């Protein structure tokens, strides 16, 4: 079995930074591409960023490109999301998951979602 645990969320002022972590147990991240998604109150879950299983390619949603950086540490079975220049519209619960079907940005392609970590950005 595979289990994912997100951590690192919190309350920050606009312009601040947070680093989220997604730790896996049961199976190594090296077998799957990993994605970060977020879901704001009353809205559907949306794609944020992803990283290939080899760590050599990353993809970002337009709204976070240049501000967020996704990276991985296979030795620690952990994927990170460094978030800089945070904006109030970044407020959401952030989730990580494994891209089981390999379709990229589509949430339907992912499985083994973690419990999520809350990010709140005040203005």
> How many H/I helical runs?
0
- The count of strands amounts to 11
Low-confidence stretches: none
Radius of gyration: 13 Å
* Terminal-residue CA separation: 41 Å
Sketch the major β-sheet: 7 strands, mixed
- Global mean pLDDT: 94
Structural class: mainly beta
β-strand amount: over 45%
Helix-strand string = EEEEEEEEEEE
Shape: globular
- Please bin the fraction of helical residues: under 10%
Task: Summarize the topology.
Layout: E1 3-7, E2 10-13, E3 18-25, E4 33-39, E5 46-51, E6 58-60, E7 68-73, E8 78-83, E9 92-99, E10 110-111, E11 117-122
Parallel strand pairs: 2-11
Antiparallel strand pairs: 1-3, 3-8, 4-5, 4-9, 5-6, 7-8, 9-10, 9-11
Describe what this molecule looks like in 3D.
- The protein is 0% helix and 50% strand.
- By secondary structure, the chain is mostly beta strands.
- The mean pLDDT is 94.
């Amino acid at each position: 079995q595979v289990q994912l645990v997100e951590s690192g969320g919190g309350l920050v002022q606009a312009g601040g930074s947070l680093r989220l972590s997604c730790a896996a147990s049961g199976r190594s991240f090296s077998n799957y591409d990993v994605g970060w998604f977020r879901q704001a109150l009353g809205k559907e879950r949306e794609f944020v960023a992803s990283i290939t299983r080899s760590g050599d390619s990353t993809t970002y949603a337009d709204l976070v490109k240049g501000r967020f950086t996704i990276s991985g540490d296979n030795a620690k079975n952990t994927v990170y999301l460094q978030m800089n220049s945070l904006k109030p519209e970044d407020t959401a619960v952030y989730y990580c998951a494994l891209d089981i079907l390999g379709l990229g940005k589509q949430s339907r392609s992912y499985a083994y979602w973690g419990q999520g970590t809350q990010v709140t950005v005040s203005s």
